[in-house]
Amino acid sequence: MAAKMELAPLRPWDDFFPGADRFAKPEFGDLAKWNNRVISNLLYYQTNYFAVAVVVFIIVGFLNPFGMFLGGTVVTLVFAGSVWAGENKAPIKNFKRKNPTLFVIGVMVTSYFLLSLCGGVMVFIFGITFPLLLILIHASLRLRNMKNRLENKIEGVGLKKTPMGVIMDLLDQQEEKINKIQDFIESKLKE
């Protein structure tokens, strides 16, 4: 899988933060549309999001290196364990497919609980949760452009695989998009 994976390019920062005209409040009433916007932005700006997260990780890691290492290890182990359980245990797999957001929240709550036992809650909040919150806010508010949509369609049909695409697959967020794209392509081929 890693041999076929491509790293998405770092998008220009003036595209990432273009100005207030390219940001809008998501439609909270239409969760499918909001989810689509978030997933599209996560895929398109993934390298920028990674860079932002690394900067926050470095700052928090510099202030509390052991706590950051412990927090990263716990979250990684909980995520890996939950993905394994989601793939190998039918009830968890069904829950993950039907409720991906709740699944991720469950991973974060479990990580938080385990870190609270070790005394690493502040590192968890600032080093792990804060960058995720920044990424979610940006992905929710940033309007998509035509280049963003094209890149997502290419990734969705499997012509290109990126790290965020793999994570989305593990969280069962790609299946619905792939089915929609496949239906679109089939309808165009019939015409």
TrEMBL record:
<dbReference type="InterPro" id="IPR004895">
    <property type="entry name" value="Prenylated_rab_accept_PRA1"/>
</dbReference>
<protein>
    <recommendedName>
        <fullName>PRA1 family protein</fullName>
    </recommendedName>
</protein>
<keyword id="KW-0206">Cytoskeleton</keyword>
<dbReference type="GO" id="GO:0051051">
    <property type="term" value="P:negative regulation of transport"/>
</dbReference>
<dbReference type="GO" id="GO:0005886">
    <property type="term" value="C:plasma membrane"/>
</dbReference>
<keyword id="KW-0256">Endoplasmic reticulum</keyword>
<feature type="transmembrane region" description="Helical">
    <location>
        <begin position="121"/>
        <end position="141"/>
    </location>
</feature>
<feature type="transmembrane region" description="Helical">
    <location>
        <begin position="69"/>
        <end position="87"/>
    </location>
</feature>
<keyword id="KW-1003">Cell membrane</keyword>
<feature type="transmembrane region" description="Helical">
    <location>
        <begin position="42"/>
        <end position="63"/>
    </location>
</feature>
<keyword id="KW-0472">Membrane</keyword>
<dbReference type="GO" id="GO:0005856">
    <property type="term" value="C:cytoskeleton"/>
</dbReference>
<comment type="similarity">
    <text>Belongs to the PRA1 family.</text>
</comment>
<dbReference type="Pfam" id="PF03208">
    <property type="entry name" value="PRA1"/>
</dbReference>
<keyword id="KW-1133">Transmembrane helix</keyword>
<dbReference type="GO" id="GO:0005789">
    <property type="term" value="C:endoplasmic reticulum membrane"/>
</dbReference>
<feature type="transmembrane region" description="Helical">
    <location>
        <begin position="99"/>
        <end position="115"/>
    </location>
</feature>
<keyword id="KW-0007">Acetylation</keyword>
<keyword id="KW-0963">Cytoplasm</keyword>
<keyword id="KW-0812">Transmembrane</keyword>
